[in-house]
Each structure stands twice: as structure tokens, then as C-alpha cells.
């Protein structure tokens, strides 16, 4: 069947509506935006009611066991949904589908699933959907790996003023607890000119903030030659006119070079915010995790960041209860948290992932011990977050307004350049603009403020944020 006929067949599908559910990280969110973009290019429209949608896609995550459980629970619920809506097409994709045992479980136990594809052949989705519509037979198509990144896929961005830009796929680190290298494959970097071209197009379309995505952005370009690296990419993107904010996720501590830190410090448009997932503060546990750095390396990198980037915000990830973690090891983690003064952290109970080395390690930690330790960890982290946020009290900060507050439709929410969430009263037309906001109440997890007019801008700007004229 020719491509022309294939596209026509999809466009003639009588139920051209869809709903996507995304589990997991920003990479998955970006993949969902691409799936949505491909569907809308084919004439599909989004339908929030799954009982009315003609197509539902579950984009899955496999990083933690509870993510798997949530997905299977969701898949199970569609047995009932399809009784009400027998023409519904249910597709499942994402990282979980890169595990053969998961695919086998879906094929044998969940007949309500019509279409299965993986992370490496996401670009094939329109073709796979068309084949299903033509033949009506369940399709399972998962590529084991890919050494290329497909360019120029349409993207349906959630926000018109900010967007994700994937700069690389995959991971070469093989941390002993992590399934990602097995689901996302080896590291493959995009050509810098393609990235710059995409960012310029986004800016021309009204985007003022981009977030660069990769499992380990600090190793960007390692597969492209000496002249291509993450520091150089940041400097190149910083020259793009009208691009106001550049963020990135995620940095691996072992690859955070002085060159990258210098680039962040030198580039006005690169936000002074770094997410640095240390996972543990114990050198012994870090070695067992195969993280390839020590406690001393963590402290050295954080010290270099704070020395070169004044007012920087640093956040992290912490895994509690890794196999063999002793009380002494846990206390080392608490010590590092205190010394580094992280603004906030994502904390996780260690979760066994089948197929990883850590899954078969001796000395698995009891759940009761994990919970007790994570509560102690959160106590320390929350106090640090509270203390850091107090420095924002009565200060004037620069906020990119993102949306109406979920808790109060009369208030807006946005973020400072350091990633702090700020809630304040404002007008819907402020969304997508940068405003100056005076902080009236500093809380542990967010800041409350009030929009200030330019003539009222007599407050002291917080050192994390460069003063700009307020937008009225």
C-alpha cells in the first residue's frame, strides 16, 4: 500500500479523536507531544472523555515498579471501557514496551490492547495505526534499538511559550538499579545544527523558554566528535535572539565538567538552576550503584557550581534503601544533603527492576527500614527548602507565568529562573509573559507574591533573578 493511500485511509477513519495518557519523565512527555503532533497532522482531534475517544494511547514508564503497576491497572480498566465503546482502539507504547516480558504479558493477558510499539519506532506510529485500521489485527512492533534520531516530527506543544527539545536519546552508564539503558538504548546525539534549527523555529513561533532533554545531557556529543559537546551547544543556543530561558534535564555528576559550569555561568539565557541527581552520599553505595563518582566528587562539583554561579539553585534525586545500604551509609547521605544544601529533591524508595544487576543483589533492605529512612531524609530536605525559600521573602523576582493556578482559578502560577514556583493574583493575559513579582510569603515548597507595576518596582531583586522592567 502506498503512503498516499495509507494517509487517506487514516483520514477516513470515522472516529478521528484521541486521548494520550503519559507516565514518567519529561522525555515521555516530549514523546507524547510528538504522538499528538502526528495525529493532529492526520486530522485527529483530542477528546478528553475516554468513553468517547476513538483512540487511546498509554505512553508508559518503566523506571519504578509502581509505574508498572499503575500502567497495568490502567490497561485493565479498558476492558470495561471497550464494552461501552467497542470501536475504541487502545495503543500502548513507551519504555515498558522495550521489555520483552512486559510485551508478552500484555499479549497474553490483555486482549483489549490493539497496538503495541516502543520508544525506538515512535515515528512509525501513523503507519502502524493505518495497518491496524486496514487489517483489524492486533499489531506488536517494538524495535530493540536504534542508532539514529528521526528528525522533523510534528510536535503538539502543551504550552505555546515553552517547549521541550530532545538533544539525545539513550544512556551508556548502566547504573545497577536502572532499566533505562535497556529501554532507551545507547546514547545517540542529534546534530547541533538540527537542534539549533528546531529552537529557532520554536522561538519564531512564540516560544521564549526551552528545556533541553536527554538521559545525560552532559555527555551530549560524545558520539559526534571532539568539537561537539554540551558546553558548546549551550553557548550556541544562548545567541538566539528572543530566546529568554534555557533549561536542561538531566545532568550526571560524573560528566558535569568545568566547561559546562563555565558555560552556564557565562550564558545570560541559561537559567541558574541545575538538577544534579546524586542518588546517594555514601561512596560505598555509589560504587555498588556503578555511579562512577564518590562523595568527594559530589562535594567538589557542588562547590564549583556555587563558586561560579552566584544564587544558583541545585536540586537532586535521592534513592533510599539501595541493597546493602547500612545506617552508616544513610547517615553519609544526610551529611551530603546538609553540606550541599539542595533546594529540593525527588526522593525514592529503592525499587527492584527485573533485569538489572541490583535486583539480584544480597542484603535487600526491608520496606519498614526504607520508609523510616526516607521520612528522616525528607525532614532534613524540607527544613533546607524552607530555609532557602525564606531568602526570597520581600524580594522581587522575575517570573515566567505558566498557567492558572490549579488550586485557585483567580491566581496565576509561574517559575523564577531558579525554578521556584510562584503563585500570585494576575490576569490570564499575563500567561506566557515574564513579570516582576514581589514575594509576600515564602513557603517550604512554593512562594506567594504580588505582581508589581514598573513604577512600584522599588524592591530589592533577589540575587537569583536579574531585574527587568515589569510588564503591566
Describe the structure in brief.
The protein has 472 residues and is of the alpha/beta class. Helix content is 34%, strand content 20%. It has helices at 3-11, 26-41, 65-84, 100-109, 125-135, 180-184, 192-204, 230-237, 258-266, 283-289, 295-308, 327-340, 367-390, and strands at 17-22, 45-46, 55-60, 89-94, 115-117, 139-141, 162-166, 168-169, 188-189, 209-213, 245-249, 273-275, 313-320, 344-349, 396-404, 411-415, 421-425, 434-442, 447-451.
How does this structure look, described?
By secondary structure, this protein is an alpha/beta fold. Among the domains are: 3-141, Methylthiotransferase, N-terminal domain (Rossmann fold); 157-271, Transcription Regulator spoIIAA, CATH 3.30.750.210; 396-456, Beta Barrel (OB fold (Dihydrolipoamide Acetyltransferase, E2P)). Helix content is 34%, strand content 20%. It has 13 helices and 19 strands. The strands form five sheets. It has a six-stranded parallel beta sheet with strand order 2-1-3-4-5-6, sandwiched between helices. Strands 15-16-17-19-18 form a five-stranded mixed barrel. α12 (327-340) links the parallel β13 and β14 (344-349). α1 crosses α5 (125-135), α8 packs parallel to α9 (258-266) and α12 (327-340) packs parallel to α13. The longest helix has 24 residues, at 367-390. It is globular and about 60 Å long. The relative contact order is 0.08. Residues 1-14 and 466-472 have low confidence and may be disordered.
Amino acid at each position: 500500500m502506498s503512503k498516499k493511500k495509507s494517509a487517506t485511509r487514516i483520514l477516513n477513519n470515522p472516529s478521528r479523536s484521541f486521548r494520550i495518557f503519559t507516565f514518567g519523565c519529561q522525555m515521555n512527555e516530549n514523546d507524547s507531544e510528538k504522538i499528538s503532533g502526528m495525529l493532529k497532522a492526520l486530522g485527529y482531534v483530542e477528546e478528553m472523555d475516554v468513553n468517547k475517544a476513538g483512540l487511546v494511547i498509554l505512553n508508559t514508564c518503566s523506571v519504578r515498579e509502581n509505574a508498572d503497576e499503575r500502567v497495568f491497572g490502567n490497561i485493565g480498566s479498558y476492558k470495561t471501557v471497550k464494552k461501552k465503546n467497542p470501536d475504541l482502539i487502545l495503543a500502548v507504547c513507551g519504555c515498558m514496551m522495550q521489555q520483552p516480558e512486559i510485551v508478552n504479558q500484555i499479549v497474553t493477558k490483555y486482549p483489549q490492547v490493539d497496538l503495541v510499539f516502543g520508544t525506538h519506532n515512535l515515528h512509525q506510529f501513523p503507519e502502524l495505526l493505518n495497518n491496524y485500521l486496514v487489517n483489524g489485527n492486533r499489531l506488536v512492533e517494538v524495535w530493540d534499538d536504534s542508532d539514529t534520531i528521526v528528525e522533523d516530527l510534528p510536535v503538539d506543544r502543551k504550552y505555546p511559550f515553552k517547549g521541550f527539545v530532545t538533544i539525545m536519546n539513550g544512556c551508556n552508564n548502566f547504573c545497577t538499579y536502572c532499566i533505562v539503558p535497556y529501554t532507551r538504548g545507547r546514547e545517540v546525539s542529534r546534530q547541533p545544527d538540527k537542534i539549533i534549527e528546531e529552537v529557532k523555529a520554536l522561538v519564531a513561533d512564540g516560544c521564549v523558554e526551552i528545556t533541553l532533554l536527554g538521559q545525560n545531557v552532559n555527555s551530549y556529543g560524545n558520539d559526534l566528535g571532539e568539537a561537539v559537546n554540551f558546553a558548546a551547544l549551550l553557548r550556541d543556543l544562548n545567541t538566539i535572539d528572543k530566546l529568554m530561558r534555557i533549561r536542561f534535564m538531566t545532568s550526571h555528576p560524573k560528566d558535569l565538567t568545568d566547561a559546562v559550569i563555565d558555560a552556564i555561568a557565562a550564558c545570560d539565557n541559561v537559567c541558574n538552576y541545575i538538577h544534579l541527581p546524586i542518588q546517594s552520599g555514601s561512596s560505598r553505595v555509589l560504587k555498588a550503584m556503578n555511579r562512577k563518582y564518590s562523595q568527594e566528587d559530589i562535594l567538589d562539583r557542588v562547590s564549583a557550581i556555587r563558586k561560579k554561579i552566584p544564587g544558583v539553585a541545585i536540586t537532586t534525586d535521592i534513592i533510599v534503601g539501595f541493597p546493602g545500604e547500612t545506617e552508616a551509609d544513610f547517615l553519609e547521605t544526610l551529611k551530603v544533603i546538609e553540606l550541599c544544601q539542595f533546594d529540593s529533591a525527588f526522593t525514592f524508595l529503592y525499587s527492584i527492576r527485573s533485569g538489572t544487576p541490583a535486583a539480584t543483589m544480597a542484603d535487600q533492605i526491608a520496606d519498614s527500614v526504607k520508609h523510616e529512612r526516607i521520612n528522616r531524609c525528607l525532614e532534613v530536605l524540607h527544613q533546607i527548602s524552607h530555609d532557602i525559600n525564606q531568602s526570597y521573602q520581600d524580594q522581587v523576582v522575575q517570573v515566567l507565568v505558566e498557567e492558572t493556578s490549579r488550586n485557585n482559578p483567580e491566581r496565576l502560577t509561574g517559575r523564577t529562573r531558579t525554578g521556584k514556583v510562584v503563585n500570585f493574583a494576575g490576569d490570564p493575559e499575563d500567561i506566557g509573559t515574564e513579570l516582576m513579582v514581589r514575594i509576600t510569603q515564602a513557603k517550604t515548597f512554593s512562594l506567594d507574591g504580588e505582581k508589581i507595576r514598573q513604577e512600584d518596582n522599588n524592591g530589592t531583586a533577589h540575587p537569583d533573578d536579574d531585574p527587568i522592567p515589569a510588564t503591566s
